[in-house]
Amino acid sequence: MTRVALVTGASRGIGAATARLLGERGFRVVVNHRDSAEEAEKVAAEIAERGGEAVVIRADVTVADDVAAMTEQIGRRWGGVDALVHNALTPFAITSYAELTWDQLGGKLDRELRAAFLVTKAVTPGMVARGYGRLVYLSTGLSKRPREGMITLGTAKAALDQFVRFVAQELAPHGVTANLVAPATVDETTGIRRLSPERVLRLGEATPMGRLVRPAEVARTIAFFAGDEAGFTTGTYAPVNGGAAMD
């Protein structure tokens, strides 16, 4: 059976690398984007060139109507979603606690959980009905270990982590798994441009492997949880950080 994977925020970085890899592994891939159609179409074209199937769907995953329309379109085309990779990153402020406002923190919390809630609610009824599903969410090591300036992202991802554990517990009897993949700072991504070159260098040097993680490396971990091999693994938190934090 050909599985269908929905990758949110799939036009670049980790999302694009994951979409391409899942396409290579035989998934039909939905390349979701919010405002980067050209890049998303390029990812879909690359999947097709390698013999896979992909479709581009524009949707803001923080907007309920967008998510509902996307899910309906997938259902009409391919019957439903077997694997959700929720990668889309909502905006966040880089700030100290001293300068933090509630709008910055509360806004990030709302967007982070709203997006995860909406996409999860949209795809899980079909998964439960079929007795099969894979849910994979992108977290970050910042949800467990603070770093200067990253209070909004770290706090929001910590909330996401716990949401996913509750989902994993409730859906496990229905053959649906839910897992978290938590990369360290990722090279070759849009987010890295918000950091100074000096800080990027220090982050890489602080890792035992001496560099930042690459999108393709994160994608391989995601693909494991999205596949059949991880059928008895749920509620887990998988760091991809080159040994920067060892639990």
Can you characterise this structure?
The chain has 247 residues and is of the alpha/beta class. It has one domain: NAD(P)-binding Rossmann-like Domain (Rossmann fold). 45% of the residues lie in helices and 16% in strands. The chain has 7 helices and 7 strands, in the order E-H-E-H-E-H-E-H-E-H-E-H-H-E. It has helices at 13-24, 37-49, 64-78, 102-130, 151-171, 197-205, 215-226; strands at 4-8, 28-33, 53-58, 83-86, 133-138, 176-183, 237-240. It has a 7-stranded parallel sheet, sandwiched between helices. It is globular. Belongs to the short-chain dehydrogenases/reductases (SDR) family.
Mean pLDDT: 93
* Second rung of CATH, namely the architecture: 3-Layer(aba) Sandwich
- Distance from N terminus to C terminus (CA atoms, Å) equals 37 Å
- Under the CATH scheme, which class? Alpha Beta
* Total of helices: 7
Structural class: alpha/beta
**DSSP E strands, number:** 7
CATH superfamily: NAD(P)-binding Rossmann-like Domain
The main sheet orders its strands as 3-2-1-4-5-6-7
The Rg value, from CA coordinates, equals 17 Å
Shape: globular
- Regions with pLDDT < 50 over 5+ consecutive residues? none
Q: List the helices and strands in order.
A: EHEHEHEHEHEHHE
The level of helicity is 40-55%
User: What is the name of the CATH topology?
Assistant: Rossmann fold
Q: Strand content of the residues, in percent?
A: 15-25%
